[in-house]
Amino acid sequence: MADSKAGPQSAEELTTFVQSMLAQMQSRFQQMSDEIITKIDDLGNRIEELDEQVSKMSDREKEDETK
C-alpha cells in the first residue's frame, strides 16, 4: 500500500519537489552568507577603531615621555 504522505508520485512531481527544495536551500544559504559578510564587516570596523585608539594612546604616551 502506498502512503499518501510518502511524497511525490510522478517524475514531474519529484522534479518540482527537488527544484523547490533547492530554491529553499539556496535562499537560506544566501541569507546566511549575507549575515556572515555583515558580521565580518562589523568586526573589521571595530578592529580599525581599536587600532586608531591604540595609535592615539601610543602617541599620547610618547608625548608624555618627552615632557
TrEMBL record:
Signal peptide: none
GO cellular component: cytosol; nucleus
Coiled coil: 33-67
Pfam families recorded: HSBP1 (PF06825)
Gene Ontology MF term list: transcription corepressor activity
Keywords of the record: Coiled coil
GO biological process, one term: cellular heat acclimation
Domain of life assignment: Eukaryota
UniProt xrefs under Gene3D superfamilies: 1.20.5.430
Family per record: Belongs to the HSBP1 family.
PANTHER family xref list: HEAT SHOCK FACTOR BINDING PROTEIN 1
Protein name: Heat shock factor binding protein 1
Organism: Bathycoccus prasinos
